[in-house]
Amino acid sequence: MRTDRARSAKAAIASVRGIGGPLLEAASMNLDMAVRTAIRGTRGWAGATNTDYDPADAATAAQPFEAYRRLHDHGGRVFYNPRRATWILPGHEDVRAALRSTDAVTSTRGVTRFMITAPMLVLSDGAEHTRLRRQVQPAFTRGAMAAWQSAIDTLAEELVADVVTGRACDAVARLAVPLPIRIIARILGVPETDGPQFRRWSEDGVGFVNAAATPAGVAQTVTAIRAIRSLRGYFSRQFASGVFTASDTVLGRLLEYNEGGELDEDGLFFIALLLLFAGNETTTNLIGGMIDTLAHRPDVFDALRADPELIPAAVEEQLRFTSPIQNLYRYTRAPHEVGTVTIPTGSRVLMSFGAANRDPRVFDDPDTYRVDRDPRTHIAFGYGPHMCVGAILARMEAQAVLRQLTRQAAAITPAGPTTWSTHSSLRGPVHLPVRLIPATG
Question: Which domains does the chain show, CATH number per domain?
Answer without folding.
Answer: 42-189+244-428 (1.10.630.10)
